[in-house]
DNA sequence: CTCAGAATCAGCCTAAAGTATGAGGGAAAA
DNA sequence: TTTTCCCTCATACTTTAGGCTGATTCTGAG
């Protein structure tokens, strides 16, 4: 019942307004009936009144148009930009697991000798790996490889 | 003149509508005048008609209600270029302008020879600078210097 | 099973990087 | 003015990096 009331509020309002105005008209009629020539004025009055009512109804009850504007807000990643490996670029290079490992240690500033010691293999092995890394990454120096790998998000 | 027309378009339209409707009323009057009791029906008709006109006017000529809703969409940017030199750490190292310049080029993967060419100086000069850089940064390899400098925010 | 790729190692050679020492010129501070 | 950096260049030497060739072992895909 409540729902029905709110749902048809505008209709009820309009009906009541109409009824009241008709009543007023009836009363006015008694006053202006004597003046026959005032009929057009009377009709015009009604017209203006109800025009105003219509405008009021339209403005009051029309649902406002919602305009959604999507604003792109640039968000920079916080200080330590959580590093996630760019798998696509990593695959493109064709680096093997061991080669990537060597590349990472290179980036930390270790010499081939130190890398060899850390991975418990010979210097020759690391030289082979590092050569492969340079070849696969299409560079000529380890510093270039490091720079490129960082730019491609292959290493942190 | 043209401007005046467009500016008062709504007023003119309303006036014309009113005039036409009053004329119609006048005509209707001749038909319904015989029926005295039909006066309320007649008034109600006018009321409904002009209500409709009012609604139409309001909807057609009023600036539509627009509720602008701003939705912020977060766009994440990889590797923000917002780099600011850590002046404190830079001073601690005691690096001179030229030495810092060489360090930056080192980090881009350039060889001493290439750096020399780029700065229009001899290889010897760059070797001297690079040695000074390694000494002042307390490292033994350029890769270490690069890694350390990046971690200290001395270079991007 | 065979073949390809990955990982391991070695030797040899060149290129680049790094160390040490010295030295001249310029600019700014003491 | 003298001192102190900074930038420049050179020569000689050692170490590290990188290129090239070739070899062995192992594993997974075809």
TrEMBL record, chains A, B:
<keyword id="KW-0472">Membrane</keyword>
<feature type="transmembrane region" description="Helical">
    <location>
        <begin position="12"/>
        <end position="29"/>
    </location>
</feature>
<keyword id="KW-1133">Transmembrane helix</keyword>
<dbReference type="Pfam" id="PF00196">
    <property type="entry name" value="GerE"/>
</dbReference>
<feature type="domain" description="HTH luxR-type">
    <location>
        <begin position="87"/>
        <end position="153"/>
    </location>
</feature>
<dbReference type="InterPro" id="IPR000792">
    <property type="entry name" value="Tscrpt_reg_LuxR_C"/>
</dbReference>
<protein>
    <submittedName>
        <fullName>DNA-binding response regulator</fullName>
    </submittedName>
</protein>
<dbReference type="InterPro" id="IPR036388">
    <property type="entry name" value="WH-like_DNA-bd_sf"/>
</dbReference>
<keyword id="KW-0805">Transcription regulation</keyword>
<dbReference type="InterPro" id="IPR016032">
    <property type="entry name" value="Sig_transdc_resp-reg_C-effctor"/>
</dbReference>
<keyword id="KW-0238">DNA-binding</keyword>
<dbReference type="GO" id="GO:0003677">
    <property type="term" value="F:DNA binding"/>
</dbReference>
<keyword id="KW-0804">Transcription</keyword>
<keyword id="KW-0812">Transmembrane</keyword>
<dbReference type="GO" id="GO:0006355">
    <property type="term" value="P:regulation of DNA-templated transcription"/>
</dbReference>
<feature type="transmembrane region" description="Helical">
    <location>
        <begin position="41"/>
        <end position="59"/>
    </location>
</feature>
């Amino acid at each position: 019942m409540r729902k029905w009331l709110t749902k048809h509020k505008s209709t009820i309002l309009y009906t009541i307004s109409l009824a009241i105005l008709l009543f007023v008209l009836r009363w006015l009629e008694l006053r202006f009936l004597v003046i026959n020539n005032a009929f057009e004025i009377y009709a015009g009055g009604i017209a203006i009144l109800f025009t105003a009512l219509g405008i009021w109804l339209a403005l009051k009850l029309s649902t406002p148009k919602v305009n959604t504007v999507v604003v792109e807000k640039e968000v920079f990643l916080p200080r330590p930009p959580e590093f996630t490996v760019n798998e696509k670029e990593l695959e493109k290079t064709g680096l093997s697991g061991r080669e990537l490992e060597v590349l990472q240690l290179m980036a930390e500033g270790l010499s081939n000798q130190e890398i060899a010691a850390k991975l418990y293999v010979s210097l020759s092995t690391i030289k082979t790996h590092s050569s492969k890394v340079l070849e696969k990454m299409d560079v000529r120096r380890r510093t270039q490889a490091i720079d490129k790998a960082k730019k491609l998000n292959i290493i942190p």
